[in-house]
Amino acid sequence: MIAATHLQGLFLKNGLPVVAAAAVAAISTAGAASVTLLDEDDVVHPPHYPWRHQGYFSSFDHAALRRGFQVYRQVCASCHSLQYIRFRELVGVTHTTQEVKDMAQDVDVLDGPNDIGEMFERPGKPYDVMPSPYPNKETGRAANGGAYPPDLSLMVKARHNGADYVMALLTGYCEAPAGKEMMPGLYYNPYFPGGAISMPPPLQDAGVEYEDGTEATISQQARDIAQFLSWTAEPESEDRKKNACKYLTVLAFMALSAGYYKRWKWSPLKTRQIAYVKGTHGASLH
Ligand code: HEC
């Protein structure tokens, strides 16, 4: 309020340029503030990678999704949950129905209560969610030096340029620069805000063995898991794109026919000619 009155005063006294100058000053101060904030955050922005699935008409690379899921299961799942994904959602995306059934069956799921009020364990079913590594957040924190490994289902949506970020984070571990003190249990990663992350570098060359023979370098695994996590964050995206193609085609036809119909209906009115002929009225009376 005070600022507004102040600006109004400036406007009345000195006209527009002063106000404009004040506004520019205000904006640049705000800009400087946010830049300082980022400097303090000590973060490197990830480069943009050409993800195949980000095109308007392109689908996921499903072989990469399958490899990415393998990386999740064999590496990330020991610390991170994937609680919004059910086994059955993998059917037709990365695995066949039978593969998914077998995979789910290997997991013990806590169910119940049964008739006598007790919880019991049963083999997993395709409708179960992915098993979480820890029974609760506290256990997760205790096992990781106080930092809870966040759920990965929506991670790609939860960070700016999520897929790029995951790729850069996983491949970005390096020696801390001279002068940067690292507390024990923290690892230097320039892509993580602050530079010190509690996640030890999770990927190693040949850390997994891909069944399709792809060489499992760190960057290959990071690329695959980044694509898999893009899928988990938006499993419906392919259906949505496919539907958009259908709907937009039909809409285009409807727009064309509506336009044609409108011109057809209006053509008698738009093309009629009204003529007033002077003097004939009086003449015909006499
Ligand atoms: C040894 C346990 C462990 C493993 C294995 C692990 N992580 Fe983590 N991860 C963590 C912890 C702990 C954090 C929290 C870090 C923090 O807040 O400092 C974390 C955080 C993250 C974050 C979030 C970073 C942010 O911006 O907040 C991402 C993304 C992530 N991990 C991805 C992965 C992926 C992908 C894998 C598998 C390739 C993986 N992690 C394997 C422990 C692990």
UniProtKB/TrEMBL annotation:
Protein localization: Mitochondrion inner membrane
Cofactor binding remark: Binds 1 heme c group covalently per subunit.
Superkingdom, natural source: Eukaryota
Key word Membrane present: yes
Stored Pfam families: Cytochrom_C1
Any one GO BP annotation for this protein: mitochondrial electron transport, ubiquinol to cytochrome c
Residues annotated for heme c binding in this entry: C76, C79, H80, M199
Entry annotated with the keyword rRNA-binding: no
GO molecular function terms noted in the UniProt entry: electron transfer activity; heme binding; metal ion binding
Cofactor: heme c
Domain Cytochrome c positions: 63-233
Annotated keywords: Electron transport, Heme, Iron, Membrane, Metal-binding, Mitochondrion, Mitochondrion inner membrane, Respiratory chain, Transmembrane, Transmembrane helix, Transport
Cellular component GO terms, alphabetical: mitochondrial inner membrane
Similarity comment text for this entry: Belongs to the cytochrome c family.
Protein name, UniProt field: Cytochrom_C1-domain-containing protein
Biological source species: Fragilariopsis cylindrus CCMP1102
Top-level taxonomy: Eukaryota, Sar, Stramenopiles, Ochrophyta, Bacillariophyta
